[in-house]
Structure formats: C-alpha cells, structure tokens
Amino acid sequence: MKKILILYTGGTIGMVRTKEGYQPQTGGIRRLLSEVPDLGMEGMPVYDLIEFDRLIDSSDVTVEDWNRIARTVEAHYNAYDGFVVLHGTDTMAYTASALSFQLAHLNKPVILTGSQIPLCELRSDANDNLITSMLFAASDRLHEVCLYFGGKLLRGNRAVKVSSDGLNAFSSPNIPPLAEAGIRLNYRENELLPASDLPLTVTDLSPVPIAVLKIFPGIQYRVFEPILTEGLSGLVLEAFGAGNIPGGEEALLPFIRRAAEHDAVIVVCSQCLKGEVSLGTYATSMGLKRAGAVSGYGMTTEAAVTKLTYLFSLGLPRDEIRRLMEVNLRGEMSSEREFI
Ligand code: ASP
Question: Using an 8 Å Cβ cutoff, are 74 and 106 in contact?
Fold first, then answer.
C-alpha cells in the first residue's frame, strides 16, 4: 500500500473561525482529517501527518518556510511514496515554484493543495482537493512539484491564482493541466516531467533583494529610481505583450541601464497570461535587450521571482544567473529551451 506524508503549513483548509477572522489552530488539522471518511476508504493510500509549529496564513510565507518544507520532504523522502503539502491559496503558486527549484532531481510527486472554504465548513472544497491530491501523490507517473485544485493538476511553477473566491482558483495559462480529475484521473502523459536517475538535491533559499515592477501607461519611472541602486540584486519587469515598454519622455531605459550598471539581473516577463516574451521583436523592447535584460519567455512572475531567488541562493556569478534565467530548469518555460 502506498504511503503519503501530509505536511500542514496553515491556510484556509485547516482554519477555524475566531473573533479575529479565520485562523489556523494547532492540533486542529489532525482532528479534522480524522473526520474525513474517504481517507479510510479502500483504494486510499495510508498517510502520516506533520503539522508545522508555525502555522501561517500563507500571506506570511517566507523563504524559511520554503526551506522547512523542502527539508521535511528530504528528511522523509525514502519513507514515503509521495507528499501532500496543505498550504494557503494566496501564495501557493509561489511556494510551488520555489519548491520546484529547491528539489532538484525529484522523483516522487509533491502535491500542493488547500481550499477556499475550510474543511470544517459547509460546502467545503477541501474534501476533493485533499482526497484527489492524495491519489496524485500516490502516482508513479509524477516526478515533480504540482498544484492540485478544483479538478486540475497543474505544474507548480506554471500555476497562478486566478480567483480570490471561486473554487476553480488556479490555472496554468501557458500549459494545459498535467491531469484532470473527472470520473477517472486523466493524465496528459506528454506534459509530464521525466523521472531522474540522480539523487534528490535540496537547496536552502536565502532572502534576495528582488523587485517586481509592473509597467502601465503613464508610469512615472522617477518614482522607482530610489530602488534601482546597488542594493537591488534582481528586477522582474512585467512588461506589455511580448516584452514591450513605453518610450517617450518618461523613458524607463535610463533607469534600467543604471540598474544594469549596478549589475542587477533584469528579467522581462509579460503581463499577458499566455504566450512568451520575445525581446527585440519590437523596437519598444530592443532597448531592454541592449541594456542587458534577459527574457523570462513564458515564465510566470511567481516562477521568475523564485527562480531568481534560487539561482542567487546557489551563489552563482551574475552572468551565470542571467544565462540560466533563459534556460528551462524544471519545466517553468517551454521545453524547446534545453534542460540542464
Ligand atoms: N489567506 C489564506 C491563505 O492563503 C487563503 C486561503 O488559504 O485560501 O492562507
């Protein structure tokens, strides 16, 4: 029988109503899980539960929490067939992305899930999210970090939260779901990452001074000048379309050049949910390319931020970080770009 380790980090799924609003409660999840009838049914894997000491609303997640999750998976890696991480939805896509980079050569499923309505409430979506995640975590086909929510299994580093109140709260706009839970669990075999022959390697992340700048028409770049100093290691620009930025009098480029002179790694992502950045296709993005910015291609901002954090945490030289930002490491961008 398959064995799954459930990690409870906090989040709505295990929260209870308090005078201050919904909050996670120590010991609460163990009791709630013991009351889920499906967990004891035939066909379900057996499970153990680890409840973290620091139970959080996921808005409070830090790199230390990511390190704790990654190290817990590593410590129990050989004893379990798969892992389910119960997590708040607000930053689940960031955590899934971070873990995908931290857990190199992963050969077992790590499935993040949560819910929009707590397990203890009427009409909760927690039951299906939990049970189906357990089944995916027991699958021999998956060798990567995934996010399961609302009937869809998504690649973790491609997922974004798209709804603050819908039960179908996540999407991976740039690739189809890895699997869908209908009457059967239907996998898209050709989308799945291959197994690895190498042993799992875990990287601890360190906090890195990174900024995300979303471009909009009429943006007053001067406002951002004070942050574009040598104190800034990485800058993710959310540009228009294929990576374009407005020129004109209030041009961004001089500021970007200054950040580049300070050796910041500048990564261009798109505000569009689908498609890729293609620097130099339009004159409005050529300047970014000349200033030394690199392309995030089809990466989500969540993936770009966590990948930068990962590459900086590896202690790589900045030119190597720039190179690797354009290389597909864990399926975070399209596979025409080589795995290394
Ligand atoms: N604020 C909650 C959290 O992210 C929302 C949720 O879990 O759905 O922890």
Answer: no
